Amino acid sequence: MRYWLLVIAIFLGGCTGLPSGVSPVSDYDVERYTGKWYEIARLDHRFERGLSNVTAEYSMADDGSIRVVNRGYDNDGKSWQEAIGKAYPLGDPTVGQLKVSFFGPFYGGYNILKLDREDYQYSLVSGPSRSYLWILARQPKLEPAILDELISYARELEYDTDSLIYVDHERPD
Fold first, then answer.
1. Which helix (DSSP H) or strand (DSSP E) does residue 11 occupy?
2. 168 touches 52 (CB < 8 A)
3. What's the confidence (pLDDT) of residue 9?
4. pLDDT at 96
5. Spatial CB neighbours of 29, under 8 Å, sequence gap ≥ 6
6. How far apart are the C-alpha atoms of 113 and 110, rounded to whole Å?
7. Residue from 52, 50, 32 nearest 122 by CA
8. H or E segment at 32?
9. What are phi and psi of 72, to 5 degrees?
10. Hey, what domains does the chain have and what are their CATH numbers?
11. What pLDDT sits at residue 173?
């Protein structure tokens, strides 16, 4: 039993890390990052498959954590899906590296790789491996030049940008 607990603890600890050769942003301000973000593009995962109109909303909780509300429209089921979680900084709170949980004690990495430092209008986010990547913006559309810059940066970091899914933000019926 102790062996399995150790294996699970090691596995979960690895879920909050960074892909090799990737660094999160510094001089990050969590208060400025709070609010609503639109998912512009993502790498495919079963937990978001088939969703459009995907948003993430971050707010400060009384206990010092960050409340996370992810929402998207399930086109097949014709219904809204929502997941509520909590995030905490991993170490230095001025570094854009968080751990996020939607399922109790199980945490995943949330690593901000690129950020509009002036206005906090767009960001490039990775999970603990190169199979997780999101482009987020404060508006449902992102200027093509900025989108190209974020995709180029992700490609330089060896993410599979050819597999990005571009999220539809047209209102569902």
1. helix 2-14
2. yes
3. 41
4. 97
5. 94, 120
6. 9
7. 32
8. helix 30-33
9. -155, 160
10. 22-166 (2.40.128.20)
11. 56
pLDDT score at 90 = 92
Which portions of the chain are predicted below pLDDT 70?
1-14, 172-173
Q: Phi and psi dihedrals of 34, rounded to 5? A: -65, 160
CA–CA dist 164, 150 (Å, integer): 12
Q: Both tokens of residue 22?
A: 């990737």
Residue found by looking up tokens 């570094």 in the block: 95
pLDDT of residue 158: 97
Closest to 42 (Cα-Cα) out of 29, 57, 30, 55: 55
* Type and span of the H or E element at 73: strand 66-74
CB 83 within 8 A of CB 102: yes
Residues sharing a CB contact under 8 Å with residue 103, sequence separation 6 or more, in sequence order: none
Say what the alpha-carbon torsion angle 44, 47, 49, 55 is, to the nearest 10 degrees.
-90
Cα–Cα nearest to 72, from 100, 53, 89, 57: 53
Dig out the tokens for 30 from the structure: 């969590």
User: C-alpha angle with apex 105: 40 to 11, nearest 5 degrees?
Assistant: 85
